[in-house]
């Protein structure tokens, strides 16, 4: 009986342990099923996309453009400018950092899958056809490769491709410097297909003319210019190989004049004013007026040379050149005016010297005559009256004889005209004419050039 009860107890115990183990097994089995299925789903997606890409590239020839022999390949482009500048006046070029986007459709890359858009690695760009875009006025272009090539490639299920690159471009900027430093320029960026004419590949702007080229906020890196805005357009050129479309984006710049006012204009104006100070000095102050004239002429020569150092060696005169030339003319005229005044001053000194010598001779003769007359009258005054002459008549005779020399003594010879510390009539006129002419010139000059505002049609201001 005891043995039977023990055996029953063991059986119940084993059955209980079996049930517990089954419940634990079932529990852990259900908990691991979703994880396994998730991994399987992920592996399935990767496998699907791998098979899709392998299938798309199987038999794909990247040497042939999309739609060859059937249609024209259309490439849509737009530009996002991250930084603009600097601009070199001497080299007539500018530097720009952009995200250059191109979009086109390649039916050979259509696919069906769980996703409508595939983000692809930039390595795939070398295995498919891409537009042969180049920059017509680019001097040097750099494609950034740190830490990996800065390229983006997106493929949609209908075969549309988005290809973006980050580029730094140094491009030509033709400048007309007649109005320098109040000038404005439109620096172009031109690009298009290198080998495909319009009959095979055509370029268009992705968005409207106001949003196809966008400059980032605070993207300007310019010290001497204001970025007024940008405009876009297209050009067509014909060559022996066909007609090509050129996409153009113009960046409109207006020069800042503050630097040149401080560096050139104010020194020139002060030099001209300094040269006119000599008109207020005595014409006999030859050393002082000579220093004023020569120093101001040399200063203007130095300013004219330094002003040209920041410009290319153009064959025409700029607005600053005209201003410096007029200031130089005023300074040189002041020196010539002093030479003229000094010449006539020397002549007057010589003439006055001759007159002074003649006057001295006449005065000496008059003094000799007066001396003789005074001696005669004095002798007459000392004569003793005759015995038969009344005493009352003696004073009258003496007074009559002595009255003549008193009058002659009071008569003074005419004094020579003073010539020292005199003011020349030329100096008097120059004090008025020179400032009035220089002020009129400045009024006309600044009114003419500052009112020349550039007219920019359909310009999009930088954000």
TrEMBL record:
Q: Where is this protein chiefly located?
A: membrane
Annotated Neurotransmitter-gated ion-channel transmembrane domain residues: 264-359
The Neurotransmitter-gated ion-channel ligand-binding domain covers 50-257
Keyword terms? Cell membrane, Chloride, Chloride channel, Disulfide bond, Glycoprotein, Ion channel, Ion transport, Ligand-gated ion channel, Membrane, Postsynaptic cell membrane, Receptor, Signal, Synapse, Transmembrane, Transmembrane helix, Transport
Keyword Signal assigned to the entry: answer is yes
Spell out the molecular function terms from Gene Ontology: chloride channel activity; extracellular ligand-gated monoatomic ion channel activity; GABA-A receptor activity
What's a GO biological-process term for it? gamma-aminobutyric acid signaling pathway
Pfam family, any one: Neur_chan_memb
Q: Which stretches of sequence are listed as region Disordered?
A: 373-420
List, alphabetically, the PROSITE patterns matched: NEUROTR_ION_CHANNEL
Instruction: Write out the annotated subcellular location.
Output: Postsynaptic cell membrane
Q: Where is the signal peptide?
A: 1-31
Xref: CDD domains: LGIC_ECD_GABAAR_A5, LGIC_TM_GABAAR_alpha
| Lipid bilayer topology | Multi-pass membrane protein
Source taxon at top rank: Eukaryota
| Positions with biased composition (Polar residues) | 373-382, 391-403
UniProt feature, compositional bias: Basic and acidic residues: 408-418
Task: List the GO cellular component terms.
Answer: chloride channel complex; postsynaptic membrane
Which positions, given as ranges, span the membrane?
257-281, 288-307, 322-345, 432-450
Q: Which family does it belong to?
A: Belongs to the ligand-gated ion channel (TC 1.A.9) family.
> What's the protein called, per UniProt?
GBRA5 protein
| Origin species | Pachyramphus minor
